[in-house]
Design brief:
- The protein has two domains: 2-121 and 249-336, FAD/NAD(P)-binding domain (3-Layer(bba) Sandwich); 126-246, FAD/NAD(P)-binding domain (3-Layer(bba) Sandwich), CATH 3.50.50.60.
- Helices cover 23% and strands 30% of the residues.
- It has seven helices and 20 strands.
- The chain has helices spanning 13-24, 40-44, 62-73, 161-170, 190-201, 297-315, 330-336; strands at 2-9, 29-33, 50-51, 60-61, 79-82, 86-91, 97-101, 106-114, 120-123, 153-157, 176-181, 206-218, 221-229, 234-238, 241-244, 248-251, 262-263, 266-268, 281-283, 288-289.
- The strands form five sheets. Strands 1, 2, 5, 6, 7, 8 and 19 form a seven-stranded mixed beta sheet that branches. Strands 14-13-12-11-10-15 form a six-stranded mixed beta sheet. Strands 17-18-20 form a three-stranded mixed beta sheet, with no helix packed on it.
- The longest helix is centred in the C-terminal third of the chain and has 19 residues, at 297-315.
Length: 339
């Protein structure tokens, strides 16, 4: 059981800036995110896409924004729990909130902040008949423990960064890796493409240009996959596990079952403190709704600042909060490590 002042669901830009605002008020944070790295949509969906409406930055990429926010929260030492999804939320009799993830990590916090964007990222399922039987047994949409794939025959499907990055990470420990993509052009970083193609050239892994059409095995365990080559016939490749990386979609997921006041799959909040209809539970960023709501990153930053002021009331109920500016407060500058 992990005890913390505040648990933030979502490590995208709004969740990261909330760490900063809470940290200024001496509130310690843990963050949970279903993705394998901080940054949310900015890092996962458009890391190199320019953003033009962040104050002070005429142009900044999604990854650059994430990197800057990560540097900004360094003084507050947030703890990240990645590749986990919140399954259970419960208000306890003592006024705290108990939270449990899908892999069993449990938290008790005084304040829960939902900064989950449009909800949780859900992997896109490839259109392969009967794939449901193999999911979570021999077909996986994310790599949570690399050792699980040691000495295994792997088929990795996709042409983006995730597919190629995992080819590079798993090739040294797997028995054999086969990358399958419908064409020989990739949506991944050029240096990753070069490294993968070098491994293929040297016979250390295979690349097949085609589409997985059928899965073969029993009781959810794969023995082989059928691949229709882009310029050829159907072939069979023996494999223990298949890892499809077809991108992500957004779904509200378990949040819908937490008893919060929802309006068209968004969480209703007040605009004074961005608290939900349940005390100590807040919602900031694209996940919330209120009259005049604009789904902008800068709006989420504003919401996080006001949320932190109210959160202080729950963390330090006996302390009066005095508003201070970072430009003039030696106390805040000390927390930031300013010399």
């Amino acid at each position: 059981m992990i005890e913390t002042d505040c648990l933030i669901i979502g490590a995208g830009p709004v969740g990261l800036f909330a760490v900063f605002e809470l940290g200024l008020l001496d509130i310690k944070c843990h963050l949970v995110d279903i993705l394998d790295k901080p940054g949310g949509q900015c890092s996962e969906l458009y890391p190199e896409k320019p953003i033009y409406d962040i104050p002070g930055f005429p142009e900044i990429s999604g990854q650059e924004l994430t990197d800057s926010l990560m540097k900004q929260v360094e003084p507050f030492n947030p703890v990240f729990h990645l590749q986990e999804q919140i399954d259970e939320v419960e208000k306890l009799a003592n006024g705290t909130v108990r939270v449990k993830t899908d892999i069993g990590t449990e938290f008790v916090c005084k304040v829960l902040v939902i900064a989950a964007g449009g909800g949780s990222f859900t992997p896109k399922r490839p259109p392969i008949p009967g794939i449901e039987e193999y999911e979570k047994k021999s077909v996986f949409y994310a790599v949570r423990q690399m050792e699980q794939y040691r000495d295994k025959n792997l088929v990795i499907v996709g042409g983006g960064d995730s597919a190629l990055d995992w080819c590079l990470a798993l090739q040294p420990i797997a028995k054999h890796v086969t990358l399958v993509h419908r064409r020989d052009k990739f949506r991944a970083a050029p240096h990753s493409v070069e490294k993968v193609m070098e491994l293929v050239k040297n016979g250390k892994m295979d690349f097949l240009m085609g589409t997985v059409k059928e899965l073969n095995g029993r009781d959810g365990m794969l023995s082989s996959v059928g691949i229709k080559l882009t310029e050829g016939d159907m072939i069979t490749v023996e494999t223990d596990n298949m890892l499809p990386f077809f991108g992500l979609t957004m779904k509200l997921g378990p949040i819908a079952d937490w008893g919060l006041n929802l309006n068209e799959n968004l969480i209703a909040v007040d605009t004074e403190k961005f608290e939900t209809d349940q005390e100590q539970i807040f919602a900031i960023g694209d996940i919330n709704t209120y009259p005049g709501k604009l789904k902008l990153i800068l709006s989420g930053f504003h919401e996080g600042a006001l949320m932190a002021q109210r959160a202080h009331h729950y963390i330090y109920p006996d302390q009066k909060l005095m508003f201070q500016y970072t430009t003039s407060s030696s106390k805040l500058q000390k927390r930031l490590g300013v010399k």
